[in-house]
Design a protein that fits this description.
Chain lengths: 471, 471
């Protein structure tokens, strides 16, 4: 633990135990710095962290004070979704595109964005690694790794699987243009147009779009906001519909933020194995855990090569480099060939750069900082929701990733909130874009992957008043 | 024209006019350098060029001599192919993959390769541009250009269209992971599984694979070795089969090297417009022309937005960077959305680097050198075929690109030649992989995109003797 984190924790304990009370003034940065012989910047960082957690507030020119309600939180979401589990052809409306387009503007508050802030990533460091890497690159590298991508990078990825106890060999790994391409290729490897595929409810809209492009049917299965897809419902669907594949996110699901417990993952994999059903596992957020250790993917329990694990560096290290991968189990060769046909290789300079970065072992240090920032921002956003949204609002409290799912009071129209918020320069991701039939009309996905500041707090206050007005 | 090129041309003229005769010894490099007050390296370059053109030969320790037959050439190919023009489901056999895998090894003579030598490209210069570009890159660039790719790069590409008189707006251009992805996306934009698509005969095997992946039927149309697809045959197929699209290469077709004349391109576009049939134009070799000017694509004559033009920087500037694009006419928005769903964006550092390189205007200088090298190597390979292959061998003499198509005597099995050559460390691309039904059993595609040296000459001699033995 860093010095400033230790200091923040110590002060937090004093507040939570009642030693420091609402309205108490904290010692100034200069006093604390002198008293403890630590640098002023360490004290600043600790105070910033406490502020982001909602425990203290800064008042202009008068210092820091213990906040009124040190840890307000919205009510948790407890109930699983209840989608219609009939198979249905996927048609994603125009609305998704117009909503996505709105979130791409630079000048909006990006609560509806699918991306975390680029400021969270070591882009300058990566640029320096790239500068030195490409200038040493063997010209033949441009056509060397046509098979499944840069071999040393695949070894680095295999090494990270190994740390989690997954014996994924570098030969199984296919480097792709980001996880999106990996997911598409895995889907193409195990389905034909017209086949049915199981998805979570709610599910990431890009999965819906991928199913639509391939002409697939989809079956939405009830999903618990903390623990992921309901296995009894899934078992019934497997019996009744004989779907050709499942597309699931076991770790920090988008949009719920749910994390499937290990025992449930094992059960899931065994259930699918009994039905010989391949599973496409979208696992792009696993590195962004807030707990003690990285959650293993469902693939960890796979003994039949049925789990096709997909991930990338886009959400945890290098957005824009477009380097992802699939570890497609028994379908590896098929996916490798589909990759060759789809776009040959990933970008060679990007592959080589990420490989060099991983070899130098700065990755874990970066990840520790990133997780701390994201978990702090999660708490800040939950605090703001509790302060600004009307009673009855529920929200998930994810243990990783950068999305949370908010359920507004019944009858509130999330699409309407989206339009009104957009007019005020704030984006949100309304619930209906995460389902086949426009369910979740009173839900929002909010992104806490951007720095918590006064603008963000104000945006949450604005959203809260829009919701209150609609109640 | 460079000094060494002028010198080479002057000596070539003396040889061809008979002033210098077979066996005559050329002045030594030192003599020529002193007599003309030019550097020895300039003289060396001129002699190398003459040697590559087959006009002179070096004899160890005794200097350069006028070659026996200054410009031998194989007989040209004159007749169009005569494929079965029935529509057929596409099934690409395992053989293509095993042949492709063989060409990827580093230690073989890569006559069967689909790629030119990496040594032909300014990879060091690009690496320096990349080093300075990525270190200045705005972090927000990583998520800025989700729509259709880096905007300034799209403007640079639009500028190059403009030079050829094509008013392609940057808004029409969709940046992709190489031309392969662009071609796939265009195909997906205008076809559904089961549709029929027109292709050339022979055609690039990657087109066959793309059609197979999408579950399409294909119709092979007779194609002339110099002038491309036969319009009368195409017209009949359009009437009879109502195909949903055409996938054609008008400039330096792979594998023939054919170049469709401008008037024929205009006629082609008008014919397709009458049938409302979209054309996917694979134009990755256009920059590698040996004539006076870059040939325009068929898209230049398109007034209905039906031509979807696809190209890339992989074959003319930056192999491995994986930056290509589509200018899909009226289908631009559809292709842009398919691109977003397929893999979001291309690699952001690669896009920014190519943009910076193009802005600095070193591109045309590089291209001039590249064209000179390739045309010289084409002549050297044609000379070697004439010297080493049995009489009756025919070959195309492309005016661009880096492939030529060789027709061996009747009854010679190109697949057999492939296996025997591979055992001797030489790859070739046998004719049958370029067709649906395994036609072109006595043809080879040879790649002249690698430096012409003694190893290459020896490989051609070996191939020639394998063919002679099989005759």
């Amino acid at each position: 633990m860093k010095r400033y984190e230790a200091l923040a924790d110590e002060i937090a304990a004093s507040i939570l135990s009642g030693v420091l009370r609402t309205g108490d003034r904290l010692p100034s940065v200069r006093q604390t710095s002198a008293a403890r012989t630590i640098s002023a910047s360490t004290v600043f960082k600790a105070y910033y962290l406490l502020e982001a957690r909602g425990l203290i507030r800064a008042r202009e020119r008068s210092g820091y004070f213990v906040a009124a309600d040190p840890a307000p939180r919205p009510q948790p979401l407890e109930a699983s979704s209840q989608p219609d589990t009939q198979s249905i052809a996927v048609t994603v409306g125009e609305r998704v595109f117009s909503i996505l387009r709105a979130t791409m503007k630079r000048d909006v508050v990006p609560l509806g964005s699918a991306f975390p802030s680029p400021s969270l990533f070591p882009l300058q460091r990566l640029a320096r690694v790239m500068a030195s890497t490409v200038q040493k690159l063997d010209p033949r590298a441009s056509v060397d790794y046509l098979d499944q991508g840069n071999v040393p990078l695949r070894r680095q990825i295999a090494l990270r699987y190994l740390i989690d106890g997954l014996p994924v060999h570098a030969d199984e790994i296919v480097i792709t243009n980001g996880a999106m391409e990996a997911l598409n290729l895995c889907l193409a490897a195990v389905t034909q147009p017209g086949d049915a595929v199981v998805i979570e409810s709610p599910t990431f809209y890009a999965a819906l779009q991928a199913l639509e492009r391939r002409g697939l049917q989809a079956i939405e299965v009830p999903t618990h906001p903390r623990e992921g897809i309901e296995l009894s419902a899934l078992a019934a669907v497997l019996e009744r519909h004989r779907p050709r594949a499942c597309w699931l996110m076991t770790n920090f699901q988008n949009p719920l933020g749910s994390l499937m417990p290990d025992a449930k993952k094992r059960e899931l994999v065994e259930l699918l194995a009994r039905h010989e059903t391949p599973m496409i596992e979208d696992d792009v957020y696993a590195e962004l855990y807030f707990g003690e250790r990285r959650p293993v993917p469902a693939k960890a329990y796979d003994r039949h090569g049925l789990v096709m694990h997909c991930s990338s560096f886009s959400k945890c290290l290098a957005p824009g480099y477009r380097i992802g991968w699939a570890a497609p189990g028994r379908f590896a060769q098929k996916v490798a060939r589909l990759k060759l046909g789809a776009s040959l290789t990933a970008s060679v300079p990007a592959e080589a750069t990420l490989c060099a970065y991983l070899e130098k072992a700065g990755y874990d240090k970066h990840l520790r900082q990133l997780r701390l920032v994201l978990s702090t921002q999660r708490d800040a956003m939950l605090g703001a929701i509790a302060r600004h949204f009307p009673p009855g609002t529920r929200a998930t409290r994810p243990d990783g990733g950068y999305f949370l799912w908010v359920e507004l009071g019944p009858g509130i129209d999330a699409i309407d909130i989206h339009h009104k918020a957009l007019a005020l320069g704030i984006t949100v991701a309304p619930g209906p874009i995460f389902s086949l039939r426009g369910d979740f009309g009173h839900c929002l996905r909010l992104n806490y992957g951007h720095p918590w500041d006064a603008r963000m707090e104000a945006a949450l206050a604005t959203l809260g008043s829009l919701v209150a007005a609609a109640t």
